[in-house]
Design a protein that fits this description.
The chain is α/β, with parallel strands linked by helices. It has two domains: about 90 residues, K Homology domain, type 1 (Ribosomal Protein S8, Chain: A, domain 1, 2-Layer Sandwich), CATH 3.30.1370; about 220 residues, 3-Layer(aba) Sandwich (Rossmann fold). The protein contains eleven helices and twelve strands.
């Protein structure tokens, strides 16, 4: 990046950018991106022409500088900057864990880049390993990135089909108790997979590949007895599998296939006394060569910051309940 910067003897940091045409996008409409950075980092950012001055605590000012420079580089690369990108840049700059530089997932319509350090490690694992476990709260991109990786490999001809699965009706899969035909019974539980797929591919391609069977979206019970070769296989909401179901699913892996298992161990909906297949798999396979484990936290939530605060509040409440004397 051809951005020149120097720090004065006072806490202020001065930045100068060489392409004035990009600054309106960097600043945002009515300087809303600068205001967002100021609010989240506790600094003051003042823009005059192609120059910016950042004032505030030294660490926070340094973080703001990294954020602004990374966003400017995005714009130079022809990528857009919105509120989500501003939040992602702040999240990455605040992280003490460095992600693998330059990792991304290439789709025909766009490139998908990490929005947190954990997402960077996850994308790297998706590119390198045959079996990946992604664990953590909702909103961290576990399912979305796995679907994007599947679509990328399918588009390149590296796999012949994509298989997406979820436990239906919690873990019991009691589909017979629901109204309607089979599709009407299972669609509500598989809708998040459709949503991710429709974001990674055009609606026409999704419909065409579903019709041809090159993309299959099915409840977990439909995996029994199959061998999934030349396929990219994703099991979502895996915390709601039993150990037997999880073993059944993992042993479906065939030649030239890749498998991703996602779930949140804090959101187990199994009946009391039934152990989670995801937790059992993590403990059983943690030392197995070829299996990768990526852990997300509330800090990696890429939805609006309020969602991360909600997750932290619930986690704190759960922690208090588990302490001696805590209320139920």
């Amino acid at each position: 990046m051809n951005a020149l910067s120097s720090a004065s003897v006072d806490p202020a940091i001065h930045l100068q950018f060489d392409d004035n045409r990009l600054l309106s996008q960097l600043f945002g409409e009515h300087d809303k991106h600068l205001a967002r950075i100021e609010k989240q980092l506790g600094v003051t950012v003042i823009g005059r022409g192609n120059r910016l001055t950042i004032a505030g605590p030294e660490d926070a000012s340094g973080t703001a500088r990294v954020v602004l420079e990374s966003l400017y580089q995005r714009l130079r690369n022809g990528q857009g900057v919105g509120e989500a990108e501003v939040d992602a840049a702040i999240r990455m700059a605040n992280s003490t864990d460095s992600a693998t530089p330059g990792v991304s997932i290439q789709l025909r319509r766009k490139s998908v880049h990490p929005r947190s350090a954990a997402q960077g490690h996850y994308i790297d694992a998706l590119n390198q390993h045959d079996l990946i476990f992604a664990l953590g709260p909702a909103g961290t991109g576990k399912t979305y990135l796995a679907v994007c990786a599947a679509v990328s490999m399918f588009s390149q001809g590296l796999v012949d089909r994509i298989v997406l699965s979820r436990p239906a009706v919690e873990a019991g899969e009691r589909l017979g108790f629901l109204p309607g035909d089979l599709r009407e019974k299972v669609d509500p539980y598989l809708r998040p997979l459709y949503d991710a797929l429709n974001d990674a591919m055009s609606a026409e391609q999704v419909a065409k590949r579903l019709e041809s069977g090159e993309i299959e979206i099915a409840p977990l019970a439909f995996m029994r007895g199959r061998t999934l070769a030349n396929a990219y296989v994703i099991l979502d909401e895996a915390q709601n599998t039993t150990p037997m179901q999880m073993k059944m699913f993992l042993t479906r892996l065939g030649e030239n296939s890749r498998m991703v298992v996602t779930g949140d161990l804090s959101q187990i909906d199994l009946p009391g006394g039934v152990g989670s297949g995801l937790r059992d798999a993590v403990n059983t396979l943690k030392d197995v060569d070829g299996a990768a484990f990526v852990h997300f936290s509330d800090k990696d939530v890429v939805r609006p910051p309020l969602v991360a605060r909600i997750i932290r509040a619930y986690d704190a409440a759960d922690g208090r309940k588990k302490k001696p004397g805590g209320s139920e």
